[in-house]
TrEMBL record:
<keyword id="KW-0378">Hydrolase</keyword>
<dbReference type="Pfam" id="PF00702">
    <property type="entry name" value="Hydrolase"/>
</dbReference>
<dbReference type="GO" id="GO:0050308">
    <property type="term" value="F:sugar-phosphatase activity"/>
</dbReference>
<dbReference type="InterPro" id="IPR006439">
    <property type="entry name" value="HAD-SF_hydro_IA"/>
</dbReference>
<protein>
    <submittedName>
        <fullName>Sugar phosphatase</fullName>
        <ecNumber>3.1.3.23</ecNumber>
    </submittedName>
</protein>
<dbReference type="InterPro" id="IPR051806">
    <property type="entry name" value="HAD-like_SPP"/>
</dbReference>
């Protein structure tokens, strides 16, 4: 596979944050009287505000915003157990060494995304697309389209690396090549992606003439 740049999701792709996410959202489920598994099955890969509007349908925007602010504060300050996923730091350092353009494109907000990146010790990108920057979150294509634009590349010249169904759908809708990593075997979008990996350690990159060449174990 060849490309000119990479667009990485953060949570579940570069960073292991599942315990933090589930702790925070199980608290939301309790406050909203929603079945915990129903909550966890819905939220992954989506903007928090999207999930809250879904579960708080019929409530005022003021009430939804209040719950959002509370959730954001919890998720931005609880980083216990957050760590880089296998191969993530090595891959990003390799891209920096080769001067391959790359960005992080996350459904999280700035406070949450920056806190988790710092806690995991991953390299900080020059382009960081967060929830505040797009009107429509994943699975809509807006976030990955913006990521490609800010790298100065066409979407078709970018490879999206994602773990969640919403993110895979977003990358495909944006017209990017898509690599799934750490995605559950029952994820419907796996049949549509270009490559599915168990770990980033399987992905190797070389670079010449502004083209990144990707090989897989």
């Amino acid at each position: 596979m060849n490309c000119k740049g990479f667009l990485f999701d953060l949570d579940g792709t570069l960073v292991s944050s599942l315990p933090v996410v589930e702790r925070a959202w199980l608290g939301v489920a309790e406050r909203l009287n929603v079945a915990p598994q129903e909550m966890l099955d819905f939220i992954h890969g989506k903007q928090a505000i999207t999930s809250l509007r879904h579960f708080m349908a019929g409530q005022s925007e003021e009430a939804i915003k209040k719950e959002f602010d509370r959730l954001e504060q919890i998720e931005a300050t609880d980083t216990e157990g957050v760590e880089a996923l296998p191969g993530a730091i090595e891959l990003l350092n390799r891209l920096n060494e080769l001067k391959v353009p790359w960005a992080i494109v996350t459904s999280g907000t700035i406070p949450i995304a920056h806190a988790r990146s710092k806690a995991a010790g991953i390299p900080f990108p020059e382009v960081f697309v967060t929830a505040e920057l797009v009107a429509r979150g994943k699975p809509e294509p807006d976030a990955y389209l913006l990521g490609a634009e800010r790298l100065g590349l066409a979407p078709s010249d970018c490879v999206v690396v994602e773990d969640a169904a919403a993110g895979l759908a977003s990358g495909l809708a944006a017209g990017c090549q898509v690599i799934a990593v750490n995605a559950p075997a029952n994820t419907p979008e796996l049949s549509r992606v270009d490559k599915s990996l168990k770990t980033l350690q399987q992905l190797h990159v070389s670079y010449s003439d502004n083209i990144a060449r990707i090989q897989f174990d």
